[in-house]
Design a protein that fits this description.
Order of helices and strands: HHHHHHHHHHHHHHH
Largest sheet: none
Organism: Staphylothermus marinus
Helix content: over 70%
Number of helices: 15
Number of strands: 0
Pfam families: EamA
Number of domains: 1
Shape: globular
Strand content: under 5%
GO cellular component, one term: membrane
Keywords: Membrane, Transmembrane, Transmembrane helix
Structural class: mainly alpha
Low-confidence stretches: 9-20
Protein name: DMT family transporter
Length: about 300
Amino acid sequence: MVYKSLWSRTLQLIRLKPGLNIFSASLIIVISVSSASILVKLVSTPASVTAFWRILIALVLITIYYTRNGFSTLKSIFKLNARLALSILSGFSLALHFYTWMSSLKIVEVYLSTTIVCLHPVITLLLSRIVLCEKHGSRVGIGLILAVFGSMLTALSKTSVLKADLQGIVLSLISAFFMSNYVIIGRYVRSKVGLAEHVIPAYSASTITLFVISIIEGYNVVRIDLRDCILLTLLAIGPMIGGHTMLNYLLKYLPASTASLPIVLEPIGASLLAAVILSEYIPLTGYVGVVLATIGLIIIVKSMRS
């Protein structure tokens, strides 16, 4: 019922004037993305299959919504040329982000995986510094120190770090890199085109990429039990539409630094939900690390130019 309400609210937000719904949209994003890791943990399908169905279901629902009165939106997508190519590239990055992040969740705890993967603003900051030669103020430096220190503290909060834990941390870092690419490209494309013109080709590219990965890994994407079907549907409606799609919605009307704020709150929300729903034990130093990393990320995204 919660996700049904979120889906209804999401559709209303798309129809209404953006300036009146910024707070509501941000709240939906926080709730949605915080529940993503819990649902991924609960579902029994492999990472590639989970990510495939998450995006495919969301893609189908969004396409149905935008074609209910005709196919003019779909026709306009094929006239975007270079921007269409960028949306496809963005979707490819999104697919690899989900694949590596969900793979890490199969190995390590929620609080550890989400804290590391949410370092993507740090990667965006470093890329802008190296590639674009952008300079940032002292506040960004403070945020960077807090984010990295908090993440290190979170990773070291485990009494013993196993080989699997290191693998999960590396996968989360790779996922953060692809998330950074996804957001950077999406920020540019959304400043030029409508929501559907970006997310439909992006999600289509993601779906195809994840389908290929699933086949290469030898998984049957249609062999899913009823329980997993329900969880995958919730994952698509909540975190995918209420989270990622709503983020793309905000990128049209807000600076990327402001629009990304709800996303960087994910570690705190996800960690608390994991402790309550999954009974995951989180050491005190883990909690401190999550909070410090989140504060650092907030400082970074609020200080970066859009």
